[in-house]
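Could you join me in thinking about how sequence relates to backbone shape in a protein? Would you write everything just below, so we can both look at the same thing?
***
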Amino acid sequence: MSFADALAVIEGIEGWLTDAQARTLWDAAVRTGAGGAVVEIGSFRGRSTIVLALAVGARGRVVAIDPHSGGDRGPQEISPDQVRGDRDHAEFIANLERAAVTNRVTLVRERSAEALDAVAGAVDLLYVDGAHRYRPALADIEQWGARVRPGGSMLIHDSFSAIGVTLAQARSLFYSDSWRYLGRVGSLAHYTREPLGPAGRLANAARQAAGLGYFTRNLAVKLLITLRLARLFGRADANWPY
């Protein structure tokens, strides 16, 4: 299957993954090769899950971790809501069935911090799109990131956009000695696990710090949306989570 075919499959599935970001996920998953271990934290209704599952092919396997508790769905939907969560879960299952990838995906309906034992061995590709608050985002990056094999990839959604995620990146990744920043597609940041010396760490920190301008811009737009002023500044189409 081609990436264009995959885009057609996920068309209409609710979620905040852009087509360009889906391409980055697709390429990273294809590179894992047959039998590669792919872990997704935060699946919502399956938009990104399906892209990963289609990319790894019939012999691949994706572990999707999401409690589907109805919370952490956005800045205005943080508190759990089981009715809402069950609806998300039902849509997730139905979307996977329609995409014919159910047999490639293992859903772990738990919080990511409680699901560490659900995956055995090293991870080839980790996609982090879980709770965007600082502490859970930091735990996902550090605890699950430690499971990624040398040479493996970690992709983080809402980077340089959500405050908690960006602060977690700044603390754990900006001056990391084991994660090289490859760049970002919108709010999707891409890292590869490899050792970095002092000079490499400084260069890596500088490249990530350059994204703070984008972060500041996103915060300004979110403030305008909150104050209902976005339309006055030519952002009539802006909405959560921007």
In short: Residues 82-99 form the longest helix (18 residues). The radius of gyration is 17 Å. The chain is about 40% helix and 15% strand. Residues 3-210 form a domain with the Rossmann fold fold (CATH 3.40.50.150).
